[in-house]
Each structure stands twice: as C-alpha cells, then as structure tokens.
C-alpha cells in the first residue's frame, strides 16, 4: 500500500530515485582508520541504510588535498586506497536501497598546519580561523591549479567507488572562503566582485564535470547567509544559490545559514538542546522558492513531526535528520511500521559532536550501539539461552538501560528504586531548564519498559532481604553514587554540594564561591543556576581552563550564561579550607604552582563539586552470597564467552555492578554498561 505520509514519498534526483525524503547529512564521526572508511565506518552507515533512510551523505569533509590535513578524522579523498573501502560501504547500503553520496572539500583554514605532512594551511586571504587557531597563508596561483585538479581527481575516485554522487562543502572551508568578504580581501581576479569571488568555485565545478561527466550527481552544501555583519549577506548568498542552480552544473543545494569559525558561531549552525528547533528551516525554504531547485537542509530537525512539516510545507526536498539518526538509526523503519512512538529521541546533548574533538570518535549520549555496530546491536534479539529472573537495583540511566536490554532478551526483570521517580542523575541534570530535554533519556526507557512489561517498584531502599525475596538468578546493582566533598584541610561540614543547588533543596546565597575540581556538567550547571538566580558568583577551578570534561559546543551556553550573569572565573587555583566567621564563610585558596601562595575569599556560601562516591553497600553485602563474588572476566567481556567466573559453589545468583555504582563517570558510560552487561546475562 502506498503511504500518503509526506516523508515517505519518492524523490527523483536526476536519474536517481530516492525512496523517501529522509537523509543523513554529511558528518565525520571520526571513525576512520588511517583516513580510510573501514569496518566501523561501513557498519555505521549500513545500520542507517537498514533503518530505512533514502540517502546517506558519507564522510564529513573528505579531504581532496594533502595540505588540507584531517582536523577530526576526515577521510582521505586524495588517496586511491579509499576506493575499495568506499565500494564495500556503498554495496552494503545499496543492499537496503539506500543511496550513498560523499562530501568532499579542501578545509582551507579550518585545520592545523602541525598535522600529517606539516604543510602550510591556506585560505583566500590570511584571516585567522579562531576555532583552529590557524593563521593561513594566502592561496597562490599554483595552489589554485593544484587544488582544482585535486577536486577533479577526488571526484573521479568517488565515482569509481560506485557512489551515487558527491557534494562540495562550502561553509567555513576554502571554497566559500573566496565568497565571503570577511575572509576574502584580495584585489586580483579572485577578489572584489561576486563574479571574481565565485571564480574558484566555477573552476572547481568545471574541472569536476570534465572528470566525472554530466550524468554524475554533484551538489553543494553551501552557506547562503553567514548571518553576521562582516560576513556573506543573505542577498549575496541567495544570489550565489541562484547562479549555481541556474548554471546547469549542479544537481542540488544543501543549505546552511551561519558561520563556523568559533565554537559559539558553530552552535548557531548546529544548535544544542535549549536552543531553537529547526531555526533555519524557513530560510532554506526561501532559498528553495528563490531558486526553484532541489534543496536539502539539516539543523536540529530532530523529530518526525517537524521533518514531515518541512516536506509537506514545501520547504525542502530532502530533510536531514543527522543527529536524530545517530541516536536512532531506524527512524524511517519505525515510521513505516507504525512504531513512531518507539523512536529513541535525539535529546540534543551534542556529546556526539563534542567527542570528535575531545574523545576521538562520535558517540551518542544514550545510544551505546552507535559506532559500535560490530559488537553491540541496535535491535536486541531474544536470548536462545536460559530465561532468567533478574533484579535490577536502581532506576538511573544504567539500571533502566540494563532492564530494557534484559527484558528485550526475554528475561523477567524487576527494578527496585529508592526514590519515587526513575532517572537518578539524569533527572538531576534535567533540572537545568536549558537541558530539560535530557529527560527524554529516562522517558524513552520508561515507555520501553512499560511496553516490555517490566515492573518498577518505587520507594524501596533495597536491602539484602528485599533482593533475596525476589529469588533472582541474577542481580544488577545500579545504585549510582552520592556527591563527595573535595579533600579540604577543614570545612567539609560548612560547604554545600552542587547537587543541592541543582535539585533546588538549597537556595543560592547572595555571594557564592563555587569550587569545581570535577570538570563536568555538574559544576557548570550549578554555576549556571546560581548565576541566573542573581547571586554574585566566583567559579574556581584547579584546571588550566574550566570544565575540561565538557566539549567546545557544550561550553558555549554555559559561557553565555556566565557572561550575562557576571560570573567571575578563576583558573589554576585550589580550595584549601573553609571556616565560618560570624554568618559568613572564609575560604582559603592555594596554588599547585606557587608553593605557599594563599588568598582568602569572604562569601555567604561555598558550593563544591567533586564527583560522586559509589553507593556500594548493598553490592558489598551481596558479594559473598553470589556465584561470581561480583567478579567479571574483562577478557571475555571484550572477546566473548561467559563473563561470570565461578567463585562460590554455594552462591545463589550472578552479581554485577554497573554505572556510577562502580565509579563516578558519565551518562554514556552508564548506558554502555547497561547494554553491554545486559547482553551477557
Ligand atoms: C559528529 C558530527 C560531525 C559533523 N561533521 C560535519 C562535516 O564534516 N561536514 C558537514 O557539512 N557537516 C558536519 N556536521 C553537521 C551535520 O551534517 C548537520 O548539519 C548537523 O548535525 C545539524 O543537523 P542535525 O540537527 O540533523 O544533526 C557534523 C555533525 C556531527 C554531529
Ligand atoms: S549525543 Fe545527543 S545530540 Fe548527539 S545524537 Fe545523541 S542524543 Fe542526539
């Protein structure tokens, strides 16, 4: 039966038939190995293909030249060795009728000279790129010749690999560096008039067309409005779109609004949670109306309803749901099967993107299978081993995920939770109104547990007897942790924990010192809330810069809040002790660098963030009663086999401990524990 869902309509692009309107736009997950898309890369895209999307734009910024060294694991489009790897990936996706294209580029100034071959990094003019701290050299005539030829040979390689098409990247990179007066100060044939500023683009497309012929699909992901006073204006941007569209040389436009030369600007192009949804959709629709040309676009269109609207209202031809597919690669399949409500939501945390710079590979905050397709399945199948009864203690991220996976495998699961609500630290983090969407991590799991018939018993501070009363075959301890104080010479009893501020159980005082030596979201969230409450706040950290565990994108809204509420930030400084004097507190500060240096602060409140200590009492009590003494065989966990060593022949159940009940970590680690151990019972 044909569907009348706008998202599920066919789309004809040149000779290609795209089976629906949903695509993943180009994004480098930093899964490449030696610049090649090997098994991990292939399985990642194949999963999306299985999940029903019509088009996956592979790579993010695959590099055409050696003097465009990879900034975040970019594929080497300049290397012939890439062809067989891509062919394998294409074949796997084609098996599911998913078309595959690739984005190619010269990064221009958006990379660093001190990488790969240490070649100079270049741009239209020597204007510094703040995000990569690069001072580019001015591109010369011989550079232009060489790079134009590189584009052409890269395009040929992509065609040889069987790809369905390519797109050029033209925002924040070399190509659009010529377009924008902010980055092009030239007075030769490549600067000044719009005709001149487009000259490089025409040279590239002409060389590429000569190399791949007129039938190969070639599009461009282009900025059509840089959205700042010195940048490319909307009028010029739309004029460029018109010229490219009417040239007959391109097959689609993939529209971007904004600029990306600072982390703050990048969040305008790729907004996080707490920022507007689909902020540039209407603009992309304007470009489509002005050019009457195929238009693709992505920017926080994270739910199916908005995507459907984008197509139904004629704003886009293909809708990009990129992070949405990192969180849930099977969106289209679930829509087609009437299971839209089962789609795992992208909660906009942008842990994925921050990790390509900070952690070396994109991981979703709450889908641990993404990027681990070789070892962790996206669809959990029923076990063919014995069905067991499992008690999960704790309904935070780790416990909920373990319960979900165990129930999917057919086990009988009961969850015991101490508080009256599930969610643990995720619920706490979602107390920050700006990060409220995080609660989707909890709500999606609760809905799945209901569907799977898992019982959750609330308000039970489970002891050994409560667990034994269930007579379980296995016990999963996911009891989380509680905040601990940093090591102080004195004053543990007068400081306030960041959790109390976030939960709202302690109000921020007038004059506050916040000491964060954890470096993650907990301290920053407390600081944001204190600042927004109108308090005078000094944020103190012993690190070289504050919140080192938070990536560049997530840094942006915190810093915005700190500027707006006048938070003072002091780095490289420790909190040594706190004492009460009258109705105030006196904090003594010290330095790792200058022995004997001290300063004092007189404030109304000292808030501290120093991670958590595991709540492990129940685990320790259950250990001697268990078959495995709580032990896990890590070699087998990683390479396969029974992970529970037999330690105690009289033991009554298998015992394992996951998430922050083991050690203070983050949401992804808790979810990963939940699934990887849940799969092994
Ligand atoms: C990990 C990651 C890497 C990205 N790398 C690129 C890239 O190299 N080139 C590009 O054009 N866009 C890149 N993007 C941007 C995405 O294509 C997309 O525009 C962005 O995620 C917004 O769409 P969404 O809200 O649907 O995720 C990247 C995004 C992510 C999450
Ligand atoms: S990390 Fe956050 S933004 Fe990225 S895919 Fe997962 S839920 Fe979406």
Automatic annotation (TrEMBL):
It comes from the Bacteria. PANTHER family: 2,4-DIENOYL-COA REDUCTASE (PTHR42917), 2,4-DIENOYL-COA REDUCTASE [(2E)-ENOYL-COA-PRODUCING] (PTHR42917:SF2). Its cofactor is [4Fe-4S] cluster; FMN. Residues 12-341 form the NADH:flavin oxidoreductase/NADH oxidase N-terminal domain. This is 2,4-dienoyl-CoA reductase-like NADH-dependent reductase (Old Yellow Enzyme family)/thioredoxin reductase. In the N-terminal section; belongs to the NADH:flavin oxidoreductase/NADH oxidase family. Residues 389-621 form the FAD/NAD(P)-binding domain. InterPro entries: Aldolase_TIM, FAD/NAD-bd_sf, FAD/NAD-binding_dom, NADH:flavin_oxidoreductase, OxRdtase_FMN_N. It holds the Pfam family Oxidored_FMN. Keywords: Flavoprotein, FMN, Iron, Iron-sulfur, Metal-binding, Oxidoreductase. It comes from Aminobacter niigataensis.
């Amino acid at each position: 039966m044909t569907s009348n869902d706008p998202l599920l309509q066919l789309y004809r692009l040149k000779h290609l038939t795209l089976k629906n309107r949903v695509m993943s736009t180009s994004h480098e997950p930093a899964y490449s190995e030696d610049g090649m898309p090997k098994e991990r890369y292939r399985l990642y895209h194949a999963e999306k293909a299985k999940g029903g999307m019509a088009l996956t734009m592979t790579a993010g910024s695959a590099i055409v030249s050696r003097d465009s060294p990879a900034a975040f694991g970019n594929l080497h489009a300049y290397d012939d060795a890439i062809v067989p790897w891509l062919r394998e990936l294409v074949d796997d996706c084609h098996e599911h009728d998913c078309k595959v294209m690739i984005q190619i580029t010269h990064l221009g100034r958006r990379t660093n000279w001190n990488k790969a071959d240490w070649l100079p990094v270049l741009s239209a003019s020597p204007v510094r790129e703040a995000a990569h701290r690069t001072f580019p050299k001015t591109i010369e005539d011989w550079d232009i010749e060489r790079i134009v030829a590189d584009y052409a040979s890269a395009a040929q390689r992509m065609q040889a690999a069987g790809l369905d098409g390519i797109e050029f990247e033209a925002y924040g990179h070399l190509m659009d560096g010529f377009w924008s007066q902010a980055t092009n100060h030239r007075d030769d044939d490549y600067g000044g008039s719009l005709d001149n500023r487009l000259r490089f683009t025409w040279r590239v497309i002409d060389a590429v067309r000569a190399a791949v012929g007129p039938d190969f699909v070639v599009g461009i992901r282009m900025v059509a409005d840089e959205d700042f006073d010195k940048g490319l204006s909307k009028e010029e941007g739309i004029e460029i779109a018109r010229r490219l569209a009417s040239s007959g040389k391109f097959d689609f436009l993939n529209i971007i609004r904004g600029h990306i030369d600072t982390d703050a600007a990048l969040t305008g192009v790729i907004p996080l949670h707490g920022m507007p949804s689909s902020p540039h959709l209407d603009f992309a629709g304007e470009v489509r109306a002005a050019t009457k040309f195929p238009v693709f676009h992505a920017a926080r269109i994270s739910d199916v309803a908005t995507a459907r609207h984008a197509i139904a209202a004629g704003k886009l031809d293909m809708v990009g749901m990129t992070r949405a597919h990192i969180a849930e690669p099977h969106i289209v399949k679930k829509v087609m099967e009437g299971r839209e409500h089962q789609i795992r939501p992208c909660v906009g945390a942008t842990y994925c993107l921050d990790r390509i710079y900070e952690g070396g590979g994109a991981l979703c905050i709450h889908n641990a299978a993404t990027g681990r397709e070789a070892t962790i399945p996206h669809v959990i199948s029923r076990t063919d081993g014995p069905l067991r009864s499992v008690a999960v203690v704790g309904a935070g991220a780790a416990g909920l995920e373990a319960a979900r996976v165990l129930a999917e495998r057919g086990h009988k699961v009961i969850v015991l939770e101490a508080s009256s609500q599930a969610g643990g630290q995720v619920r706490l983090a979602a107390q920050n109104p700006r990060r409220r969407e995080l609660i989707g991590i909890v709500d999606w799991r609760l809905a799945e547990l209901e569907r799977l018939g898992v019982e959750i018993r609330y308000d039970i501070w489970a002891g050994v007897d409560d667990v034994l009363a269930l007579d379980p075959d296995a016990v999963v301890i996911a009891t989380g942790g509680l905040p601990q104080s940093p090591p102080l010479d004195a004053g543990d009893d007068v400081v306030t924990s960041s959790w109390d501020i976030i939960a709202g159980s302690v109000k921020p005082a007038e004059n506050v010192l916040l000491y964060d030596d954890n470096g993650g979201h907990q301290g920053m969230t407390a600081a944001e809330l204190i600042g927004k409450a109108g308090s005078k706040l000094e944020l103190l950290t012993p690190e070289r810069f504050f919140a080192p565990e938070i990536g560049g994108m997530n840094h942006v809204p915190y810093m915005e809040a700190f500027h707006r509420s006048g938070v003072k930030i002091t780095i490289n400084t420790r909190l040594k002790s706190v004492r009460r004097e009258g109705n105030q507190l006196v904090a003594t500060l010290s330095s790792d660098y200058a022995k004997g240096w001290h300063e004092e602060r007189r404030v109304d409140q000292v808030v501290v963030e120093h991670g958590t200590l595991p709540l492990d009492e129940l685990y320790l009590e259950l250990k001697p009663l268990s078959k495995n003494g709580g032990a896990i065989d890590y070699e087998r966990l990683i390479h396969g086999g029974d992970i529970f060593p037999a330690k105690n022949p009289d033991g009554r159940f298998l015992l394992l401990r996951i998430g922050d009940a083991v050690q203070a970590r983050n949401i992804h680690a808790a979810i990963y524990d939940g699934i990887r151990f849940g799969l092994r019972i």
